[in-house]
Known about the structure:
Chain A is of the alpha/beta class and 270 residues long.
Amino acid sequence: MEQLTQDFLRTKKLPHIWCPGCGNGIVTAALVRAIERTGFDQKDVVIVSGIGCSSRAAGYLNFNTLHTTHGRALAFATGLKMARPELKLFVIMGDGDCSAIGGNHFIHSARRNIDLNAIIVNNHIYGMTGGQHSPLTPTGKKATTAPRGTLEPSFDLLELAKGAGATFGAKGNAAQPRQLEQLIIRAANHKGFSVVEALSPCPIAYGRRNKLGGAVDMLRDMKEKSISVEKAANLDEAELKDRTVNGVLYAIDAPEFAESYYHSIGKEIG
Amino acid sequence: MGNRQEILLTGAGGQGLILASIVMAAAAVDDNKNVVQTQSYGPEARGGASMSGVILDVDTIEYPKVTKPTVLLCMNQASFNKYLPKVGPDCIIIVDSTFVSGSYGEEYKVQSFPITSSAKEVLGKEVVANMLALGVLNAASGLIDREIFRESIFKFAPRGSGELNQKAFDLGYSLYEKGAGQKNGVSAQTPQ
Amino acid sequence: MPETKPVLMQGNEACALGAINAGVRFYAGYPITPSTEVAEQMAARLPEIGGVFIQMEDEIASMAAVIGASIGGMRTLTATSGPGFSLKQENLGYAIMAEIPCVVVNVQRMGPSTGVPTAPAQGDVMQARWGTHGDHPIIVFTPASVYESYYLTIAAVNLSQKLRQPVIVLLDEVIGHMREKVTIPEGKLMVEKSSDKVPSDWKPYDEKGLTPLVPFGFGHYYHVTGLFHDQYGFPTGDPPQVERALDRLHNKLEKYRDEIVLTNYIGHKEPRVAIVTYGCTVRSARAVVKKAYWQNRLPVGLLSLQTVWPFPAKEIEALAKQADVIIVPEMNMGQLVGEVERYARGEAKVVPLNRYDGEMISPDQISEEVGRWL
């Protein structure tokens, strides 16, 4: 693998806090490479994050970085984007952060179709607090707060976002970092609310309790279950059972909120 | 606090009494008086009880609430029943005979005028009853310069309805002048 | 200075106008009685002057959006009431910790909980001080008139910028909703510029003291977090650094204490009975002192507090040395009276006077209490 752009990393802040086998580093690296490929000016790039393991990424990245409160990253980002629409915002959230405590901000950011790039690192669990179930924990899987397996159905995050008005939705995973990088680039270049769901292994707080093996097993499983949107189009429901459809699931043209607002007051975004 | 005048405008939500109190307070500012306007807020904009107060003084106004009204306007029966017992014998009481009837103690100076019905019959617009009431009230109390008051009404009226609202205010004056012979203890009329 | 003609203005409207005249160009909020008029004014005016108004999905998001916009370099304000103020506490603490300027208006209504949404109260005084968790400093202004609502909002915006510290304007339903005659000075620039020049060795949280906030997007790649952080903004759990960081937050308010703490005294120079109060209750107390002292020369005085936090301790200490009795009228069950007692240090008897039925304390009530101690 090629070297990451050192300018975009705060190397003095490393090593990171993540556990061995965690996928957060892979997703973060894909994000950094994607930003580099977009050619965005470093000073215009803002990383906003919530609370949780993956949200600590903001501290390691050498941009304007805003580590907010639990679930609120998108609301902070909305204020910043409206104040400074020329900035490029990437909002890193975990699955619990985004879809539980931050669920309201998530659907309303989607509804406004504000030009933010939401990167949801989905490890199916609250990692930082030691393994509690989240709205994205698959039914039946165990967690410290669901010792007999959760009875709750989980969200389909990208369908939820689409229903709420998001105009770009893509799914990738830590086992296929090149593809993830490409998905983030497309999200960044899409005008409107973009959601990238990145599946990521948490062998410590999720894998171990659910007997999914170590990090390598979890990554292999992720890769084997993954199927591209194009290939999935030719398969029926039975054939798609237990598969994860990867790629750009939707990309829709619709008015973007910050641009509409500034246009309505007679200003154009410079 | 000898100069303090407390005006209480009461009735039902939707009769435009809060707006009337604001128009009156703004007129008082233009007439170089110190003024405070307050209102009782309920969750409903229509249908509930409405009460707003205007306080005028040459001195600085400290306590902003009406405690001893010097002028009371009652635009419906419920407000008349509620507020009459709260005023003193010197209070000027104006009631809208369209909605208010019944007996009361002879110690009260009640003056009754067909406010809403006149707005409807003479001007064809019930909605200007509030401005008509202000005309009666100001004619009876002489609190604010009439011309300044008329200008304030024009400023607050929705576009194109300034003159109609001023007409309503003037009609209030003529109603008062016509009924000026009636003094204390005037009987409230029964609604038609 | 030329003055405009006097106009009739509502307290909430004056607050919005003050914000705009102090350079606020971003408002995020959520509708709630009795503060909604602030949002409505901002929604009407901000787009006309190139500003941003946004109605957020909830109170939490409003507070977050305001902080986000401040980091983008805008002067910001949000307004709310009771239940909404409770929801804002989380991110208010964030703004304090991360030293992001912003102004939060709370038009107090009768609580607890949904309470009486349209009735006045002064029950949020301690919440304004301690509502968000942790040992934080806060600045809270309590306007007693429509004009004070205007100029204390200006002071709040300017202080907030200068100290990089959230400031709360604690209105009450009476002042927020009442209209009165005011004269707004014309042509005066109300915006006090905090330093625009960024030194080459700029650090976002310089240990040497106050530094201006450099907005995002200008090539300073610092970190903003609600975690305890070092002078560059990066998280730390190192005990000496944590202690220094908390001291830093408190010291900046102590250093500028005399600019922050605003009070006003009227009445007898050596009062036997003094009244200490704030917000709309000041009006009733002033009516009492005018009559008792100005007309009847009785030894009565009033210390009105435009700033309740940081608490005007020095002023109370001095007053307690003069007065035998200090009466503290409040539209709650007794909140600030405890602070008054603490700083009276036994030099004067401190008497609470409380009302909590959703009505203002009347001059008669205060007068009666004053009479009891004369």
